[in-house]
Structures are given as C-alpha cells and as structure tokens.
Design brief:
The protein has 491 residues and is an alpha+beta fold. The protein is built from 17 helices and 23 strands. The N and C termini lie far apart (57 Å).
Length: 491
C-alpha cells in the first residue's frame, strides 16, 4: 500500500511514492527534465500556466506507473509553491495564467491596502501586511483586467488547483487562506474584512477543508488517467515552506526548519500569534496535527547559497564544493576579521526590502588568503540566519533545534557547526524532501498513520551537530561587527 506525495514547485513537479508499511520511498519522478519556464511579459511579472503543471504531473504519473502498481495508492498529499493565484471559470478552466509567488506587480496594491485597512488592524488580526500575497494579486486582476476578473468563478492557490483536478472539488484550507493574507488570527476565521476592502464577492472563495484530513476523493477520471482508485482520499495540503517543516517533523513551538539553497529559509513554529511590526518575517498558520493553533514564522534570505556559488565561480573555480569547504575549514572561526554581507540577490525583506548589494569588509591584502574569504562567505550567510532568528526571538520563538534536509549548504559540517554555535540550537540533518513529506502527511490525514509519532517513525536522521564551545566567542565577536555594518547601511 502506497501514499502519493506531489510537490508542485515553480521549477518542477516532483512525485514520490511512500511504502506505508516500511516508510521508504519506492519510486519518484520529476518533470519537466529541465527547469519549467516562467513567463515574464513585463518587468517584475512571473506567470505559469496551471495546465502545464498538470502535464508535468501526468508525465510523472506515467513514470511511476511503469515502476509500481498505482492501484495500491491509498492516500494523496500535495505540497505547492506558496502565494500564487489561480483563477478559474465555472468549468474549472483557468481564465489566465497563474500569477506565481515571485511576481511583484501587486506590491503597491498591498501597500495601499495596508494603509487603508489600518496598520494596527492588519498586524493584530492578519499578523502581516497584505503585501504582495494572493489577495493583493487578485485585487490587481480586478483593477487591471476587469474583463478577466468578471469571468472568475473561484480563485485558488496552486495546490488547490491540483486537488481540484484530482477530485473535481474546488476547495482550499485555512493555512492556504493565511498564506494569501485572508485569515483572521484573532477570530479564527476567514478575514472577510480584507475581501470587503478589495471588493471581492464571497462567492469567489472555495470551501475550506482541513489541511490534514480527508479533503475530497479522487474521481473516476483520475482512476482512468493514472490508475489511482476512484475514492482515494486527498488528505493533506500545504505550502512548500510549511510542508518542508512538516517533512522534517517540525511541529512544536521552538522547533525550526531551515533550507540553504539559492535563497535560504528559516521557518520556526510558535503558539504565540504575534507579528513583526516591520514585516521582516511573516507569520502563517502552520500545518500541524495539533488541536492547538500553531503558527509558522517564515524568514527568507535571498543572498544565501547564491553567495557561496558566486565565491566558488569567482574565487575558487578550480575547486569542487567539498574542496572549497575543506580549504575554508583551515581558517579559525571568525575568519580573522574578514566579514561578508551576502545580500547581493535583490531586495531583502529582512532588511526592510532594501537592495544593499553584497559587501566584503575588513579584507587585509597582506594577511588574508582565499581560504579566509571562503570561510567569511559561509559565516556571513550564517550571520544572516542569526540576524533573522533574533527577530523571531523577539516574537517569542526560542529555537532549541534546527532541522534540515541534507542538501546544499547543509552538506557542509563547518556551516552546520557555525550555525549551531551562533544560535545555540542543535542542528539535525534528515533524509527527506517535500514530496515525501506530503506523502507522509496524506497517510496521517487519511487515518492510515494514527499519530505524528507513527508518521515520522521511519524518518532517518543522518547527522547531529551541537554548538562548538571554542567557536562561540570568536563568532559572537565577528557577528557583532557584522551586525554593526548591516545596520549602518539600512539606517
């Protein structure tokens, strides 16, 4: 018996089949083979066709069917790129391409709504500014494309659209509404005052189903297309960052999930509904099997792994990443005074949406070598994580463990130990990904796994890194100087 996990990203759709008894992945597929295209007809725009997502999913299902008997699929879970807008007509056909997460056209729409609704009310009830999230994107369509808006029957998030195609039922979740800044945390219900401000008719909203639990049943059409039995429950749905945390068993207050790819994300769980008044981090409902409300505080650092990749390309092109890491590890913690500010990949929300550019500070052309610069790059990235985690601490989130998949920057023991020493948290590395997390969540939501403990019993922990006492003082001293440099720029 299998559980199917679907991970809909902006670059690909990944599918994984989880053997429910063993908890092991038995098959997976990723499509398209090369990165999925993003259309940008105007500066700052980013769009994808939802029908393309369905094609990628269909291609992947054919690959799985060649390896396994899909009639044994007993549950389906979906992870998806957050904050996107999918608008469909009465027949369920998209009326336009999806405006995806990285599209920035609705920034001013959200800023105007922040002032009109009231900053205090937004922070207290939405825990966010309306920003450039799904509600603001729909408002942009209403203002800029009135003929298109008039054709909309329902609007959804990307994962809602995939669930609809599998089941024929249009639905969303409370966690999804919170990602769109359409959830009232104080009242514990949909934030209709936001819809009222934008002039959205309530008929445009989909019915709300549980994020973990039976949401709808796969249709006869899905059985005919893929071999998944009609009536199989779609029983889990979450945005990619909440799902990454769920995949790593990050469910309780004080636990943090982190990723270190091109950009870096820190996602911490809290039970305190508190907002960052400067919107440097964002708070959403977390997907967690708990009777108590859990929230996820999300920090994104754009200049993360891309800074490390830049260093390899321009400073050490002759080295592999493991060789580069080994060379950096020959330098003591603190990099002998060299500091790197890695913020060279566009505007940083954690810096108040400023584009500061990356900077190297304290470089001595006589004393410092390539090794110093390479270590300073990785320390600078870790410092940016610490900077954001300190903001999370102000919101009442005190990290005691940081979990990550073994990929990208977290492959490097020196980086892990640096982050552990800066935050005081234990770093745990696991063998999992978003599609497997969605598959586990689906088995839990369908009642096949009875508890979270059973759900994650097979999750393999690969490494553990504790804070290095000998590194703490030099890193703290370097971080204090780094922070002074950052704050002198953003004042």
């Amino acid at each position: 018996m299998y559980s199917l996990g679907i991970d809909l990203g902006s670059s690909s759709v990944k599918l994984s089949l989880l053997d429910i008894e063993s908890g092991k992945c038995v098959a997976s597929a990723t499509n398209p083979p090369k990165e999925a295209p993003i259309s940008s007809p105007h500066k700052g725009w980013a769009e994808q066709a939802p029908t393309d997502w369905w094609k990628y999913l269909s291609d992947g299902m054919a690959e799985l069917a060649a390896q396994c008997d899909l009639s044994q699929v007993a549950s389906v879970g979906i992870s998806y790129q957050m904050h996107g807008l999918v608008a469909v007509d009465k027949d369920g056909t998209p009326v336009r391409d999806s405006i995806i997460w990285c599209d920035s056209r609705a920034v001013q729409t959200g800023a105007d709504a922040f002032e009109a609704i009231g900053r205090k009310r937004c922070m207290e009830q939405l825990l966010n500014s309306p920003g450039n999230f799904t509600a603001s994107k729909l408002a942009w369509v209403k203002a800029a494309e009135p003929e298109t808006y008039a054709r909309i029957w329902k609007f959804m998030l990307p994962g809602d659209y995939i669930a609809y195609r599998l089941t024929g039922k249009m639905s969303t979740t409370a966690t999804g509404l919170s990602e769109g800044i359409l959830w009232d945390f104080r009242a514990g219900e949909r934030a209709d005052f936001v819809a009222g401000h934008f002039g959205f008719d309530q008929s445009l909203f989909c019915d709300v189903v549980p994020a973990i639990g039976v949401q709808a049943l796969c249709s006869a059409e899905t059985q005919a297309l893929f071999g998944i039995p009609e009536g199989t429950p779609v029983s889990y749905r979450a945005g990619d960052q909440p799902n990454n945390a769920f995949s790593l068993n990050v469910l309780e207050p004080g636990e943090i999930a982190a990723t270190g790819g091109t950009s870096g994300v820190v996602y911490g769980v809290t039970d305190l509904p508190k907002a960052d008044s400067e919107s440097r981090v964002n708070t959403f409902l977390h997907v967690a099997p708990s009777s108590e409300q859990r929230m996820g505080v999300l920090l994104c650092i754009n200049g993360c792994g891309i800074m490390n990749a830049w260093a390899r390309k321009n400073v050490a092109p002759e080295l592999t990443y493991p060789e580069m890491n080994a060379l950096a590890d020959t330098v003591p913690a603190g990099s002998d005074g060299v500091l790197v500010l890695p913020f060279g990949n566009g505007a940083e929300r954690v810096l108040g949406n400023r584009s500061t550019g990356a900077r190297i500070v304290g470089l001595d052309l006589v004393r410092h070598s390539k090794a110093h610069l390479l270590r300073a790059v990785q320390e600078g990235i870790a410092f940016s994580f610490r900077y954001g985690i300190d903001i999370m601490r102000d919101l009442g989130l005190e990290p005691n463990v940081i979990r990550a998949g073994k990929a990208n920057l977290f492959l490097n023991p020196m980086f892990r130990k640096t982050l552990a020493s800066l935050t005081g948290a234990r770093i745990e590395l696991f063998d999992t990904d978003g599609a497997l997390g969605a598959a586990r969540g689906a088995a839990l939501g369908a009642g096949i796994y009875k508890t979270a403990r059973e759900t994650f019993a097979s999750l393999a922990r690969l490494d553990v890194d504790e804070p290095e006492k000998a590194w703490s003082q030099p890193l703290e001293e370097a971080y204090a100087k780094w922070k002074t440099e950052v704050e002198s720029i953003i004042k």
